Amino acid sequence: MPVAKPESVGLSSRRLDQIGAALRAEIARNTMPGAVVAVARKGTLVYYEAFGKLGDPAGSPMPKNAIFPIFSMTKPLTAVGALELFEQGRLMLNEPVGTYLPQLDKMAVATQTGTEPARRKPTVQDMMRHTAGVTYGSTGEGETELSKQYAGLTGDLSAGEFLAKLGSLPLQYQPGTKWDYSLGLDVTGLVIEAITSQRLGQYLQGQVLEPLGMVDTSFAVPVSKVGRLAKPFQKDAMGKRAPTSPRGHDGGGGGTFSTAADYLRFAEMLRRGGSLDNVHLLGRKTVEFMTSDQLGPEVDIGELRNYTNLNGYGFGLSVAVRRARVLPELWALRATTIGAAWAEPTSGWIPRKN
Q: CA–CA separation, 244 vs 219, rounded Å?
């Protein structure tokens, strides 16, 4: 990506420097070990800085090419991989997910007194836009037993174990009636595996990561790159995973590691409508469909409103879509954290024009 001064694309060097001031203050307060920030506009990199420490015992300075667990920013990677299969005619988004994963073909729906039949089967599109009826669950105080069982559906399970357990549970609401942040992209990743007979990481490596030159993005960090792995504070539960070991299955909703530079290339590909540097991954209309609001009036979006940074947003396939002309409160700050240490944007923020 070409590099230029911020003013050449209508940004301010002085105002961008405020990002560094804010992050240094947070690091000084020990809220994070360090961060890497990359800002691009109109295909030009205008700000790329590292702050603080890597978080290793040696206290190494944070390098710009530090590798972070990117959690839910995995979701758009999985969505693009699925949409490639859609363009090839191998995956239909309006098809019941049980067509590809028979373990999920006969899921009932939970009620206050038991279960009831699903009025329709959850589709692949439901999984990708978080309206299927599956959730992440929770183990918090006062949570239902069903919610606790959903919370046990982790990446430590093998693909077969994950599907068997999920298929034994009822959906938490009728498909297509409610938005709830969910395991939907994890299920989508397993749909990809069923169609391609490849592990998700292997498929994405060949179809998305390698073509885009995302050389540091993977589901496990090679031993040769561990020295660049950013680590949280010891008290942070997010740091418990062994980064060099593959998990039970490749979690399409939150299992990858990446760098700011790698993910910026992915975001730029989407901004340009599916292509970057003569590499064509998706058609322009497919990207427009992916990033269009797919929550109609029949969908209860109350849970979406619980994310204060997403007020004024709907949802597409793995990404939030702005409905309002005015940016909601806090969104501008949240957008700057797409490649930052231990930030987990739930939207996979992609600017449609800039």
A: 9
Tell me the whole-structure pTM to 2 decimals: 0.92
- Distance between CA atoms of residues 261 and 274, nearest Å: 18
Write the DSSP symbol of residue 211: H
Q: For residue 196, give the CATH number of its domain.
A: 3.40.710.10
Torsion of CA 103, 133, 304, 310, to 10 degrees: 20
CA–CA gap between residue 66 and residue 339 (Å, rounded):
10
- Mark whether 330 and 345 lie in a shared domain: yes
At 96 the three-state DSSP class reads strand
Q: Which residues are CB-neighbours of 160 under 8 A, at least 6 positions away?
A: none
Residues 310 and 330 in one domain: yes
Going by pLDDT thresholds of 50, 70 and 90, the confidence category of residue 326 is low
DSSP letters for 229-265: B----TT-GGG-S-TTS--SS--TTT--EE-HHHHHH
In sequence order, the β-bridge partners of residue 68 are: 258
Is the same domain home to 78 and 218? yes
Looking at the structure, do residues 29 and 156 belong to the same domain, yes or no? no
Q: Are residues 130 and 249 in the same domain?
A: yes
For 129-177, the pLDDT digits (tens) are: 999 999 999 988 888 999 999 999 999 999 999 999 999 999 999 999 9
Assess whether 181 and 284 both reside in one domain: yes
Q: Which residue has the higher pLDDT, 87 or 238?
A: 87
**Which of the listed residues 46, 64, 82 is the one where a domain comes to its end?**
64
Residue 48 falls in which region: left (phi positive, over 0), alpha (psi -120 to 50) or beta: beta
